[in-house]
Amino acid sequence: MISWRQASCGARPPGRAQRNNAGSELGLALGNVAMAIAEDVATFERIMERVGVCRNLVKIALAIAAERAGRLKLNGRLTSYSPLSRFVELDFLAYGIEGKKILWQNLRDCARLDERLPDVDFDALIARAQAQRDEFEPFRRAAGNAALGGAPRDQTGPARPRRWSARRAGARRASH
Q1: Domain boundaries in the chain?
Q2: Phi, psi torsion values for 78, nearest 5 degrees
Q3: Stretch 42-46: mean pLDDT, rounded?
């Protein structure tokens, strides 16, 4: 039988990415994130037990299958790790952490679990998720640039070429 801890898709990708980047700054950052995610999984399990939510093994199995299917990609390297592999793993991890942050917010605000479980510090859990994103975001951006061949964009500049913006603005004026 699949255990809940084994099935936590959130804890598996950072561990795999950490192994593939061992000995680097990224590997250290991913190690920190993986430990924090494991703590968050344990916290979520305790919350589920306290509010009487049962684990669904079918959903767990589907989550494992989706995570493993997500490893399949056309990275130009059949058996080895590539820059695209790194970027996809970090991007997947970013989505997971953002989802976890939203989960904590929803449990606090929509389910009002902060009232039912006053000993759970949802604000700290939300802040920790944001800190996790902040810790590895520079690595994710660098991996994206390396994998997709782009140069880092100046964050103060426009997101699109001016020619496109001007053409678009002209089309908008003409349609009004």
Answers
A1: 4-175
A2: -65, -45
A3: 93
